[in-house]
Structures are given as C-alpha cells and as structure tokens.
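As a warm-up, study this chain.
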Amino acid sequence: MNYRLWVLIPLISFHSCQKNWNLAQSPIASGNDPYFKIVAHSDPYFESTNRKVDVFGIPIYAYAEVEDVKLLHAANIMAQYLDNDEDGKVDNPLLIETLIENHAALFMWKKMSQVNLNAQDLGTDETRPEWHTNGQIGRFDAALEEVWHVISHSGYAHAYPSIFGEEAPTQLTEAMDLARGGHFINIPHPYPIEAWYTYDDRTCEYECMAGEYIYWALTSMLGAQENRLQEISQEWTLNSNELVRNKDQAIYSLLSNPEYSFPQSLPDGTYQR
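Now compare it with the structure written out below.
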C-alpha cells in the first residue's frame, strides 16, 4: 500500500486529558501495555476517532472498531523505529523535534469508509503482529510500512531536506533515479531493464515514489523483505541487506550513516521487552 502525500491541519495539542471526553462515549480502556496507554481524546481534526496512543509525542489515533491490540502494536512499532536501541530515549532528537513540529500523526481504521482523514493511515486488518512470530511468512505486517511512512515523510524529509527531501534534487531522489534507471516524472513502460526499483502505481507521483523507495531500501536492509521476493518483485528486487549493499551503494551509504540514526534492527512490536 503506497503512502499518500498529506498536509495536516495544525493541531492545538497532542495531549488531551480524560476530562475532555465526550461523556456520551463509552469509557476507554487503557490497554495492557506496560509502556503505552490508550486514552480518549478531543484533538481537533481527529474527532471522528475515539482514542489514541502517544509515542514520544507522536499520536496514533484509532476509530472505535480498531482492536486495542492492533493499536498498541502500531505504537510499539513506532517506538522501536524511533528508539531502536530501546533505551527509553529517541535515537535522533532532531527527527522527533521535526515530527512534532510537522504535526505528524497516524490513524487506524477498520472500514474503508473511515479512510477520510488527510493523514497517513493504517488498516487494522493489515496490521499483523503474528507475522513477527511465525517466521515472517503469511500476510505481511503493514504497520512496518505505514508507520515508517509517517517517520520518513514528516520527519527525515524535513529534518534533512537536501538529503532525504522527496522533491528533486536531493541525495535520496538521485539515488532513486539510479534505482529506476533514469529520472522519470511519469512511470515508464517498461522500466529500463537495469532498474531494480520499478514501482508502477499511477496514483503515486514522483515524491510519493521517493517515500516508497526509502521504505523498500530500509526494510530490506533490516531483513523484512527476505521471504517476500515473489510477492514484491514487480516493485523491488533488492530484498536483503546484502543485495542493497552490493547493488544500491547510494542508498545504502545514506541509510547506514550513523549521523542520521536510522534503525539498525527490525521492529517486532515488543518495545523494551
């Protein structure tokens, strides 16, 4: 699922108190996670959702039909991306500052009719905690993708605009052009035979392509795509750390540069456990 470019309406506050509940709502259970609590909210623009979890100042909202376990799983995935060494502090302070300044948020939905907010979304049915414990086979855990899109689009792209910005020319887009076999505003048919990034969703424009590219590269380096080549090869063929390192040196050098504090291990939804 490709991410959408969005502009969030500025929020007054990410931290709502339970006293602001709509009293007609059922009480919100806080969940059973030792690090993250589910709370009711009245945050502007997200009023159609009934609760949220805060992860280092980044809210994840959920419609009433979204299961608590899925909401908390997404929160744990986000926490592991941001605090990959799980020491209780974000790995990149500039990144989290930028995410908060840009009002980064994710919302989770159950029914397609709920995909109506101008923010990154994640479906509860595509959120698959069990993928991490069953040998990484079966239906992929889309939380790894959609949570990452929030972090890269609202965070890295703005914290380091000349490096990870999604509008050309940046170091990210230059690497992507090499991976696609050329600088293409419109999707070529066919892609050059030497290309290894061949995303062909016509709803995904050039900047969106850059967001997808950094997702494929990073998660391949972290091991998420090793069992998925047959499923993903129409879009991406470097499905392991070794392949990215040997074939796409441009993106590998960016994502492995310690200056930017990219994750070094794949989140599995078990933050600090």
